[in-house]
Design a protein that fits this description.
The complex is a heterodimer of chains A (297) and B (163). Chain A is mostly helical and 297 residues long. Chain A is built from 15 helices and no strands. The chains are: A mainly alpha (297), B mainly beta (163). Chains A and B meet through helix 7, helix 8 and helix 9 of A and helix 1 and strand 2 of B.
Chain lengths: 297, 163
């Protein structure tokens, strides 16, 4: 595996893209409360994977939806996967509540971390959409009754309501078209969500990172990091594997694993935006001593 | 775009179903009787034949002694005018109750006032009546209630047929 990844790295240099995340500093050190977004992200990944597996067997038609779900449920593996999909969905809603409260209490909606709040704002209606479109897919009476009522709620919107209802339901009453429409709507938002996740945590998102680095070039704290100096930092465990910046990983055996951990952690609290100097109102003592300028920002 | 909108154009394509739903002799005065309406329904690429398309609550208003052709009958769709759930009869059999949002109607189909319920009745209008008449079977000479069944738009203050 290592050989394959090295081969890939030699041709793409992807590891370089991961350096900023691997080196990221959580200002007050890691903690469980900072993992809410990480857990959300991984639950989402579980949803995507289990959802994709369910798609291999599920049939979105009024005649066969229930039967296909029953078929899935009748095998141990299918039941397990559908169970994961079902309970991870519930867990996401709960975690989302915890996450939003955490972000709110931490004031993480303030500059420069508005994106954390904004991404939550995008996630909220998406989760609503997933819940509404996902439930009737089981093809149960309850599911049909639910989408019937929700269709009528949509239909009671002034002016555009009846049109939108007909577009969603595809007829007088929920049927084949309803299920296929819901199936489509249930799956498609993944694309936008995936795009957003990548923007935030993936290689594509690193332009934000670089932008922040450029803006912070004068920040002593940032400079210290990029030089890989021996600045003592008791609370900042994640930088302990710092390696020379010229050849970040070539010289050590562990970095790949550390990279992976860093990558996960990077997805975790999304606090890479934290590195902006303006945020550090209470910088670590060492940093404050060497760079009083950061305090005022 | 025309492809996507085709689902909208097809909406409401089912015609009214004219059907005998209940024998007159089975109806007691002011005792609602739930009758099924059987019909055909096109569900996108599938045509369903002779399946339940809806239900009607049939209520006889006249005395049993009245002549059959003069019997007064009322029929309501079983769909709640609020959001379309199926209306049930209350345990005391004196009200129609919607299980979804607790809409309540008296036996004449009028919404029960919120003050009487103790909560806000979500019903936007009275229950939707459907046209009905009493007919005699040519062969058996039995008297039947015939209804013209069709759905109405939910959540509006006025009764508007879905066409």
């Amino acid at each position: 595996m290592r050989a394959v990844l090295t081969w890939l790295d030699n041709r793409t240099g992807y590891r370089r893209l991961l350096v900023p995340i691997g080196r990221r500093v959580v200002p007050k050190g890691p903690g469980w409360w900072r993992t809410t977004a990480s857990c959300l992200l991984w639950l989402l990944i579980v949803q995507v994977i289990t959802g994709g597996l369910l798609m291999t067997t599920y049939s979105p038609s009024a005649n066969s939806a229930w039967a296909s779900v029953h078929y899935i449920e009748s095998s141990a593996g299918g039941s397990f996967i559908r169970g994961l999909h079902y309970f991870a969905a519930q867990a996401m809603i709960i975690l989302f509540g915890i996450h939003i409260v955490r972000v709110l209490l931490a004031g993480a909606f303030r500059a420069p971390r508005e994106l954390i709040w904004i991404s939550g704002l995008i996630l909220a209606p998406l989760m609503l959409l997933w819940a509404i479109t996902g439930n009737p897919l089981s093809g149960t009476r309850e599911g049909f009754a639910q989408i019937d009522v929700e269709g009528h709620i949509l239909g009671s919107t002034p002016v555009v309501g009846p049109f939108l209802r007909d577009l969603l339901i595809g007829g007088d009453q929920p049927g084949n078209l309803t299920l296929t429409h819901l199936y489509f709507l249930h799956g498609v938002p993944q694309v936008s969500r995936q795009g957003r996740v990548r923007l935030r945590t993936g290689p594509d998102g690193l332009w934000i990172e670089r932008l922040a680095a450029r803006n912070n070039r004068q920040s002593p704290k940032r400079a210290v990091l990029s030089q890989g100096s021996q600045r003592p930092n008791a609370g900042l465990r994640r930088v302990s594997h710092r390696v020379p910046s010229e050849s970040p990983f070539a010289t050590r055996a562990e970095p790949d694993r550390q990279m992976a951990v860093g990558r996960v952690a990077g997805a975790a609290d999304e606090t890479w935006i934290d590195r902006h100097a303006r945020r550090s109102r209470r910088p670590p003592a060492a940093s404050a001593a060497s760079a009083p300028g950061t305090v005022s920002g | 775009l025309r492809f996507v909108l085709s689902t909208v154009r097809r909406a409401g394509a089912d015609p009214l179903i004219v059907q005998r739903v209940a024998r007159l002799k089975d109806l007691r005065r002011n005792e609602p009787f739930l009758a099924r309406v059987i019909g055909n329904h096109r569900d996108a690429w599938l045509q369903h034949h002779d399946e339940v398309q809806g239900r009607v609550w049939v209520v006889r208003r006249s005395e049993a002694t009245a002549a059959p052709h003069q019997a007064k009958i009322e029929a309501f769709t079983s769909l709640c005018p609020h959001l379309g759930c199926a209306l049930q009869i209350s345990p005391a059999r004196d009200q129609f109750i919607c299980p979804c949002h607790k809409g309540a109607f008296d036996l004449s189909g009028q919404p029960v006032p919120s003050e009487k319920l103790g909560y806000k009745n979500p019903a936007p209008r009275a229950m939707d009546t459907v046209d009905c008449r009493v007919v005699q079977d040519a062969v058996t000479k039995e008297w039947w209630v015939e209804v013209q069944y069709g759905p109405f738009t939910q959540a509006l203050g006025a009764k508007v047929a879905k066409t």
